[in-house]
Amino acid sequence: MAWTKYQLFLAGLMLTTGSLNTLSAKWADTFSAEGCHGDKEHEFSHPFVQAVGMFLGEFSCLLVFHLLLCHDRRRPVPTVNPGQSFNPLLFLAPAMCDMTATSIMYVALSMTSASSFQMLRGAVIIFTGLLSVAFLGRRLKPSQWAGILITILGLIVVGMADFINLSGREEHRLSDIITGDLLIIMAQVIVAVQMVLEEKFVYKHDVHPLKAVGTEGLFGFTVLSLLLIPFYFIPVGEFTGNPRNVLEDALDAFCQIGQKPLIMLALLGNTVSIAFFNFAGISVTKEISATTRMVLDSLRTLVIWAVSLAVGWEQFMGLQVLGFLVLLSGTALYNGLHRPLLARIPCCAAWVLDDAEEQASAAERERLLANNRVVQAGDDA
After folding, report:
1. Interatomic CA distance for residues 342 and 332, integer angstroms
2. How much is the pTM?
């Protein structure tokens, strides 16, 4: 089935904005400028300020949702489902996970390459799969377990590529790379916890995706903005690149932006791209499929890598290509992209059909149980 022009636009928007999100954050990390009080020129190393900008982009999705809702209500027949009312505090725990993971990843991005950053984020399927088994009672298929094992292998290959690429160089830089890679993987554990919390407590409610993203963005933006105050006074030694050696020096960030306005352009690119990326991702899932969204998300890793090579942020390494292909294979297996191919093989077609019927039966059982809970709730009322 051929895609419509609108579907092509959505796919292109998701791929472009998803790539720009990481590239603009990395671009900001490449700048150097003078800080406050005549500080000498130093790198723009402000991951928590960048994270606040990212949450501002997510928060804007909430504003977009209400604008769409107001516009839709003016139509003779409204088409947007506003969803049921819910307690916004349901989003507090996932938002705190999002805030913690995002902040860690921005710290890591300043230490490692943009391509490795994007590739290593694929580790999320490992921890999401394991946590869904432990806390959601889900049973993973053999292909999903295989996907997890292949993803682990891909992470090892990408890590080896980073190590080999920097072996023989100054020790401090090598330690930064290793620390950054480990921080990214650690952040994926928190992202997996966020996904499990959302599935267990949030998405059983009828919440519009834009409203969900925007509400989490509001919590993340508010809490992290307030945390910038104590962060200004917490000493961490030379771990950060700001002159005062504190966890985050927001005033220094603003001074550097004043000295070099291009930094603001990079930060705005990050904020705007995350807003459009969330909108495009939700729309791709709705208009095309969740599988297409996953494929596009994998393709943006390739775009980020190509741009990083083109602008000279990193050097070409064949081992990194192998790591990307292994990670892509693991993600494809975990998400079931092998099924359409197996369905064309006569001896495997029956197995794929049985697997699809099992999924459909499980979905139907869940739908019936949900309807039964609604009826019981009505009777109790």
Report:
1. 13
2. 0.81
